[in-house]
């Protein structure tokens, strides 16, 4: 009997790829809602426009590759990629920034390698890193959150910022990770008093956004869309390293464990990015190692590197290393015993 040869991602149980992608989109809703509350409708505009661009680019790529268009678009993978990338972008990003990011994610990171299931790197993170390296000013221009004295733009102003950026006077503020990274003379207690964007633990608004993405991630975990190994490995690694090197808040301190867990894209990355079944490790033990190494890289780059939030760089580095991890963490073949050492 001939066996059907199919590529990843492989469906387990009753859920197919479309249902998994729809569940991921639903899981992002709490985080997007909290981002909209604290930063205004800019993220919503990013996602709506980015999704339309991603679907159009996916259609062009499928047509050029002579692949079925409607059946492939129905898996919603392009919309998921667009949503994850646009959530990572600053609100009120200009249209051309979103277009370049989508082109890098859909064409370069996905279809250049053969489409869904063949991409060795996470498409959303490829798009993000291309934009961060190429346009650092635009990618670090975050709007001030609610509660810091700034007035949040309306939906029409968000549309103008996207499609007519030259007519929109953006008000920006450094993120909490950037403020702590650039600090050189104040203790953390003094820095928190002088910087309203630092919020209570890890950035005004950011801590609640992170908790909302944590809720969505736990819901996906309950639905068994992925196993716990990669997220736990990443979060445990960051917690241990930040606790080990935390010096109780001197001027040289780079933040407490709670600051690193709730700040930036830590929880978003742990549940929505590193759990990608295509570009991560395969076995449970491999996923645990994969997540732990990503967490270590995130902390190292945040403390010693040039970028305050390093989730995208850490994920891409470990995407490259995932086959190596798989090679050394293969589970025992069913029906065979482990060979005793000689």
Task: Provide structural commentary.
The chain is mainly α. It has two domains: 161 residues, no CATH class; 150 residues, no CATH class. The longest helix has 23 residues. The N terminus is likely disordered. It is found in: Cell inner membrane.
Briefly characterize the structure.
The chain folds into two domains: 13-173, no CATH class; 175-324, no CATH class.
List the helices and strands and how they pair.
Layout: H1 17-39, H2 42-64, H3 69-73, H4 77-88, H5 95-108, H6 123-134, H7 136-139, H8 155-163, H9 176-182, H10 188-194, H11 206-222, H12 229-244, H13 257-262, H14 266-273, H15 284-304, H16 311-328
Helix pairs in contact: 1-4, 1-11, 2-4, 2-5, 4-5, 4-6, 5-6, 6-16, 11-14, 12-14, 12-15, 15-16
Transmembrane segments: 20-40, 47-64, 125-143, 228-246, 258-275, 287-304, 310-329
Keywords: Cell inner membrane, Cell membrane, Electron transport, Flavoprotein, FMN, Membrane, Phosphoprotein, Translocase, Transmembrane, Transmembrane helix, Transport
Membrane topology: Multi-pass membrane protein
């Amino acid at each position: 009997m001939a066996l059907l040869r199919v590529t990843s991602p492989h469906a387990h149980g009753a859920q197919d790829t479309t249902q998994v992608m729809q569940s991921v989109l639903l899981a992002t809703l709490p985080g997007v809602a909290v981002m909209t509350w604290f930063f205004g409708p800019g993220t919503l505009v990013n996602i709506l426009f980015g999704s339309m661009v991603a679907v159009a680019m996916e259609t062009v790529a499928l047509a050029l590759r002579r692949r079925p268009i409607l059946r492939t678009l129905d898996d919603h993978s392009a919309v998921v990629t667009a949503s994850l990338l646009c959530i990572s972008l600053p609100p009120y990003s200009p249209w051309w920034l979103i277009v370049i990011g989508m082109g890098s994610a859909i064409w370069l990171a996905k279809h250049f390698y053969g489409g869904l299931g063949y991409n060795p790197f996470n498409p959303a993170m490829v798009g993000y890193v291309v934009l961060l390296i190429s346009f650092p000013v635009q990618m670090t221009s975050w709007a001030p959150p609610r509660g810091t004295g700034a007035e949040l733009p309306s939906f029409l102003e968000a549309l103008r910022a996207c499609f007519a950026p030259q007519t929109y006077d953006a008000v920006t503020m450094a993120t909490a990770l950037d403020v702590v990274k650039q600090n050189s003379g104040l203790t953390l207690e003094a820095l928190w008093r002088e910087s309203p964007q630092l919020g209570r633990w890890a950035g005004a608004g950011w801590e609640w956004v992170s908790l909302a993405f944590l809720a969505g991630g736990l819901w996906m975990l309950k639905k068994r869309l992925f196993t716990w190994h990669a997220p736990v490995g990443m979060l445990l690694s960051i917690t241990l390293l930040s606790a080990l090197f935390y010096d109780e808040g001197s001027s040289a301190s780079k933040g407490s464990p709670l600051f690193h867990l709730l700040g930036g894209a830590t929880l978003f990355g742990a549940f929505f990015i590193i759990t990608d079944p295509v570009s991560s490790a395969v076995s449970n033990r491999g996923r645990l190692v994969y997540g732990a190494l990503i967490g270590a890289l995130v902390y190292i780059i945040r403390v010693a590197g040039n970028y305050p939030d390093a989730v995208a760089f850490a994920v891409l580095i470990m995407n490259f290393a995932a086959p190596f991890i798989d090679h050394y963490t293969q589970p025992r073949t069913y029906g065979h015993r482990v060979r005793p050492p000689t």
